[in-house]
Amino acid sequence: MKKLILHIPHSAKKIPITEGYVLSKEKINNEILKLTDWHTEDLYNSKDCDKIIFEYSRIFCDPERFSDDSKEPMSKVGMGVLYKKTDENEVMRVISSELREKILNEYYFKHHSKLNNAVKKQIDLNNRALILDCHPFPEIPMKRSLHKIVPRPDYNIGTDKFHTPKKLIDISVNFFKKRNLTLGIDYPFSGSIVPMEYYQKNKNVESIMLEINRKLYLKEGTNEKSENYGDTKKIVQEYIELIKNEL
């Protein structure tokens, strides 16, 4: 059976290993509030899809980063695969080589194995796999954001030159235009996840990222749903159905 793969990497807030954290619980919780992709498991929930959800907070381990910091641009601001600094540039965590190895082996690579297996299953069954990378983004850029221009669009699609077919971009542009919603293309964030086994190697593994501006569904500065939450979820669900139809 053909299944769309939904990758939801930043919805959790659990920190399973507190070793290395040097900030107060209050400051850590504030960072979790800022960085968690609130309610994405619900917004992107869809039947007949294969959902790959990371169960731990991104401030513990970010499965969307390269495991090698030398390949990860955000590591320069303390936001590599294992976050070391807050958005205020305070040192949040000190990571020993032993702790890094433990977290990567027990959390990061296990998650990527799940994603890789989901892709492999679709390739084996259908000679094609399609990933939707599921996110929101804040209207007001974080201090360490590389992209500072405001206002930001209502939605954004992130693409990869190798793994995102032009047809997926075109139907996305048309989808949001019909609904009078503004759409960024690789703005404010670019790219879309692909397992390393297939990355830049197999064009039959396709991927596109969808991001929702948080202002559309959250009360400002909180993780509480706004009165527009239902309308936003409806749009996201319609978009998922659109992508499913491309399988």
Describe it:
It contains five helices and six strands, in the order βααβαββαββα. The relative contact order is 0.17. The protein has 247 residues and is an alpha/beta fold.
Quick description:
With 247 residues, the chain is an alpha/beta fold. Helices cover 30% and strands 14% of the residues. The chain is built from 5 helices and 6 strands, in the order E-H-H-E-H-E-E-H-E-E-H.
Layout of strands and helices, then pairs:
Blueprint (H helix, E strand, L loop, with lengths): L3 E5 L16 H11 L4 H4 L5 E5 L43 H30 L2 E9 L17 E4 L7 H13 L4 E3 L19 E9 L15 H16 L3
Parallel strand pairs: 1-2, 1-3, 3-6, 4-5
Antiparallel strand pairs: 4-6
Characteristics of this structure?
6-stranded mixed sheet; 247 residues; alpha/beta
Strand order of the largest sheet: 2-1-3-6-4-5
Strands, total number: 6
Distance between the termini: 10 Å
Strand content: 5-15%
State the secondary-structure class: alpha/beta
SSE topology string: EHHEHEEHEEH
Helix content: 25-40%
